[in-house]
Amino acid sequence: MSSPADTPLQTGRSLGLYSCPTCGRVSRRTGPEVTSLQLNCPRCDTPLHHRKPHSLEHAWALTIAALLLYLPANLLPVMTTVSITTGSVSHTILGGIHELWTHGDWGLAVIVFVASIGVPIVKLLAILVLLVTAGRASQWRSRERTMLHRWIDAVGHWSMLDVFVVVLLVGMINFAPLAGVRPEPGLLAFGAVVVLTILAVESFDPRLLWPEPGPGPVTPTDAPPASAPHE
Description:
Blueprint: E1 17-19, E2 26-28, H1 55-75, E3 79-83, E4 87-91, H2 93-102, H3 106-135, H4 142-155, H5 161-172, E5 174-175, E6 179-183, H6 185-203
Antiparallel strand pairs: 1-2, 3-4, 3-6, 5-6
């Protein structure tokens, strides 16, 4: 008698089930397998797939774009302050953190460092780990990688802290020509990095972290055969 551990795990894909990403209805494939036509949800007519089409390709493209913009986001100034006492002074993210630290605002400096430097780096590295392992159809620590995906999805928007601070300063400090704050190109690059990483996480299909056993990797662009689905 085979033990439960030896019994093959039944999945929605192996049973021909499709979950609609829009309305949540679960449909089953019936009839002959015809791969040339598209299976749509019978309730809302959304195209159904076992996996997000081109999930890895989209996530890779967005992640590479974020990596390319990460250096200018940290090297270019994010804002320039103007006052009658100090004149015009440009600030990068790291420069602003250093200034906060030297002025004794250690807590705020740590918060800005974690949100603007630490989180984006860790998030980009985590996305790369997910993309590489999913592309290789790795079964290594699937549960932990799924938790990692949920974590980077939850904390990603906190990296917009610098953008919010600069936007508030621009709106609040506007006493030209006595004092003022204006945004710089580094802010646009940093905001683009945050948005691109958020989109990369949204594009990535976490079901790719649970490949079904069998020869060859799970194809992320799996297209379902046409049939008459039912609940």
